[in-house]
Amino acid sequence: MTGRASLVRVLAAATLVTLSACSAVPPVGVSSPGTVAGQEPALPEAYAGGVGGEDSSATVAWREFFDDEELLALVDHALAHNQELNVLLQEIEIARNEVGARRGEYLPSVDLRAGAGVDKVGRYTREGVVEESLPLDEEREKEFPEPLPDFLLSLGVQWELDVWKRLRNEKKAAVLRYLATREGRNFMVTHLVAEIASAYYELVALDERLVILEQMIDVQRDVLRAVRLQKASARATELAVRRFEAEVLKNESLRFEMRQRIVETENRINFLAGRYPQPVRRASDDFDAPATGSVSVGRPLELLELRPDVRRAELELAAAALDVRAARARFYPSLELSAGIGLRSAEGDALFTTPESLVYGLAGDLVMPLLNRAAIRAEYGNATAEQLQAVWRYRQTVLNAFVEVSSELSRVDNLAQSYDRKRQQVEALTESVTLADRLFASARAEYTEVLFTQREALESRMELVELRQRQLSA
């Protein structure tokens, strides 16, 4: 009875110490974005200028958004062979394995153990005196062998009871980070598709600019022949001939630069597609035809549901909140159960003799950190700081998403209007080139007027192609 009373007193004292220590645990950290550094600003209900609507192009699959078969084939190849995307896939696999590891910590572990060995103790030690004075078998008066063999076959179980949900919160945080890596892959896929499409339209635009440049070179060569004939008939000077020759040579030099840019753009597309340099098939003849459907953005609130980068930041924020709870649980006592059962004998032929060789055990450990908890406090402080980082990162991602969409909406609208005005300018300058050639042929215009008109017409056509490319990229 005295031993039992002492045990009760010890358990009561341990309980009081545990309860008093738990009361000193720091409060739960930040659990929602709205509680950090003031109230989170509300997302605007509409974009600038009232644009938007109920539908959003973000819900349309990219295969349906683009109608260029060559572009679709390039994107398909890139999604299968892009090296950076494949690296990210392995990061997703690592995150998935981390979920399995956290789940394994939450479940009990079972170990099967088999072993054999010998043990020799000193004669004048405590164990040696006991072996010297006691026979191994009192009936047969058999002495302890020297050295003493030891054969073991056992099954052990260890299980930490997750009373404070630390292990479960760590597992949930790992699941959320795994989902965040998947959203990160979706975000990268979105960027990869957009980057390939942008480079593809740039390549098609370069083809169109090269065609325009070659057409202008042909026109200027015709004018150069006419000027030479006029010089032969004393209707033009050598200065005019040289100026037209210089203009032709300048544009021929520009043609080589254009071809180099085409090669570099093809190589960039090939790199994104994960293949070695080779010609890129494209539909350059349909450059002026609409390559995409109409673009609609929906409501600003849909950014939180449709953009992968926002969803990833939201999942990382939720995981950071669980990390804080898991770090806080380390201040509380942990309860661990262990049990084992097996067979153990000093003689190999008697190992499976039961119940003589049967051994078993059951134990429970209650561990409470009392002194030197600086490491636990530091981990808790780090988890809280990382959660604050996740909060600000989430807000930054939402703000960046809204600004990006708002800027692109304005870009699409302004480029459409600019393209319409530039097209009218090209039509006017094209007609002026024809008129300047006629006036020069009839000696009613100076050669400088023809040169300037041709330059302006060429530059305006190039600018029109560039505007078209920027429209498609936007």
Terminal CA distance reads 85 Å
Report the order of strands and helices.
HHHHEHEHHHHEEHH
Number of helices: 11
Provide the helix percentage.
Answer: 55-70%
State the total count of DSSP E strands.
4
Helix-and-strand structural type: alpha+beta
Strand content: 5-15%
Q: What's the rounded overall pLDDT mean?
A: 81
Walk me through what this model shows.
With 474 residues, this protein is of the alpha+beta class. It is 62% helix and 10% strand. It contains 11 helices and 4 strands.
Blueprint of the fold:
Elements: H1 2-23, H2 62-65, H3 69-81, H4 83-106, E1 109-119, H5 126-133, E2 148-161, H6 166-232, H7 238-272, H8 303-306, H9 308-329, E3 334-345, E4 358-367, H10 374-441, H11 447-473
